[in-house]
Every structure is written in C-alpha cells, then in structure tokens.
UniProtKB/TrEMBL annotation:
Organism annotation: Ziziphus jujuba witches'-broom phytoplasma
Domain S1 motif: 143-210
UniProt keyword annotations, A-Z: Cytoplasm, RNA-binding, Transcription, Transcription antitermination, Transcription regulation, Transcription termination
InterPro entries registered for this protein in UniProt: KH_dom-like_a/b, KH_NusA_2nd, KH_sf_prok-type, NA-bd_OB-fold, NusA_N_sf, S1_domain, TF_NusA, TF_NusA_bacterial
Protein name: Transcription termination factor NusA
SUPFAM superfamilies linked: Nucleic acid-binding proteins (SSF50249), Prokaryotic type KH domain (KH-domain type II) (SSF54814), Transcription factor NusA, N-terminal domain (SSF69705)
GO biological process, one term: DNA-templated transcription termination
Coiled-coil blocks: none
GO CC list: cytosol
Example of a GO MF term: RNA binding
Gene3D superfamilies named in the record: 3.30.300.20, Nucleic acid-binding proteins, NusA, N-terminal domain
Amino acid sequence: MKTKNFLNHIDQLAEEHELTRQQTLEAFEKSIISGCKKNYQIKSCHLDFDKEYEEFFLYKEYLVMETEPNTINEENVNIKKITCINLEEAKKLKENPQIGETIRIEVDPKNFNFYASQEFKNKLNEEIIKFKKENIYIFLKKYENKLIDAKVTSIKKNFCTLELEKEVQTVLLNKDKLNNDEFEIGEIIKVYVTEVQKTTKMPKILVSRICTEFITEIFKEFIPEIQEGIIEIVEMARFPSLRTKIGLLSHDSTIDAVGSCIGDKSVRIRHIINILKGEKIDLFLWSDDPKELIANALKPAQINQVSIIDFEQKIATALVTEDQISLAIGKFGTNVQLATIVTKWNISVKVI
C-alpha cells in the first residue's frame, strides 16, 4: 500500500511524543498487525516496508495443514501463533498450495471495520506510552545515586510534590525530609535520587534528604577538591537533622582537608549547613593510628588521652577533663555515638 508522505507522518508522530523514528515505526507495525488480526479474526499477520518507506505491505497469514485444524497436534506446530487451514481451504486462496506452506494474502487496512480500526488506534496509543515510559526511565536512570534540583509544586500533610526533568513528578515523603525542612511552592530544593523504579505507570523516582549520600553529593558539588579527588571523604556517620560527622583525608600534603571544606571565613561550610537547614557538621582528619583517629573523631572536645582496651574487639576509652565531658559526649550522646559509628570503635568517655 502506497501512502503519501508516510515517513513524514511517522517523523511527526515521533517528534510529538519524543520518540525515535525506529520506535514509532515499531509501534505502527505492532498496531496495524493487531488491527489486522482483529479484522480477519486470525492469529498471524505480517508487515513489510520498501527501502524508502514510501510503501508498506500488510498480509494475513495461514498455515496449510493436511488434517483439519481442530485435530492438529500441538507438538507438530504451535497453532497458537498462526491460523491453520486444510488443503481445500488453501486452494481457494492460492493455486497449487503445498502442505506446510505459509500463505500470505495482501490486505488493505482501509478496509478495516470499526472494531479493527479502534484496535489499531488503541494499540498505537499503548505502544507510544510504553516507549515514552521506557525513554523517560532511561533518561532518569542516569540521575540515580546523584544529587538533583527539584521544584516544589505542592505541599501536603505527609509529603510534598516535586517536579523534575521533563515535567516528571515525584514526592518527597515526610520520613525522607529533614526535621527543619519548610518549603514554599515554587522553591527549588536539592534531593538525592536513591532509586528509579519501573512501574505499571510512569517511572517512580525515590528521593531523600536524610541519607548519608545526600551529604556526600552536596560536599562534592560545593567543594571542588572533593569532586577532583584531592580530598577524600573516608567515612561518615549521620543523625539526620541533628548532626553529621565526616572523616576527611587529603591526598595532597599542601592542602588542608578540613580547612578546604570549611572555606575562607567559613563560607563553604555555612552554605552547606544552610542547605541542611542548620544540621551540625563535624569535620575531622582521618588517621590510620586508632588513638589519633578516635581523638580527632571526638572533636570539638579536647581529648587528653585515648586508651585501647581491646584492639581485636575495637574497644577504647577516651579520657577528658571535667569541663570537656559534655562536649565529648554531646547533646543526647550524639558526639560519642557518631564517633563510634564513623570510626567503628566502641568508645567510652571518662573524666580523668
């Protein structure tokens, strides 16, 4: 069947739905075959294109069998895939048909009845949606495990709706928000994409502001030395909304890891804390020496001495003066708990 400007119509449809030409042709092929099956009540049809895609040829297919169709053994032929006819019926369609031959009869889709035409339209819409979902999934998948900007479009009791790339929306649940997060509609916020999931509808994007990866990516974005690998975040422990403790290591002896992250006049760290809505950030130098590591991790408290109680079990005691005990333990015990998590040492704090 020759169709005027067929390829132009395909390209227009592809552009309208942000698909490739190949995806649109595939959607068209599946749809017109589905309509053909509906129109002729058969199991198999075939579509061919010429080289220039100016013409396409649609066929209904039959398999010629020696026995009656209802007596065919499924072990010999998969009758679920093609409509079978006997030799006498085949002779009505073609001269000198052969047993086992697949007969193709060209048909014109202009002759489709109402139900077949509807089947074609519905199938085409279904295939377009499928490809759009797949393209959006592929597009969004590259943002998985990354920090992105999102626009707040609505605020509900248990979540807020965010708009991402290509007008794709997701929700930030209250459980994934910081305690001090108070947004306004239209505000651009930073979130970490923990996962992009395929669903029966559009891809589902899971985002968070409380995971440790959120902190890591913020530091990468605002501290060039971390992005470039000069400064390494070795370990991190976090109580979201309260406090985060980060162990840093500089791979350049001329660069101070902690000082670089704090920035001139504390500009860098203040900017990060603002994004975190006031969450406290403790930065300390990482060390391979357990005593030095534990003392550094307990900062801002001044540690007089660290005693290793059991090296294999990683049990240690930090000794401080009485005026440093509250700093060493921290509010609600957060300082010593985070130090224990980040160093992987079981730390107790005692007064000298």
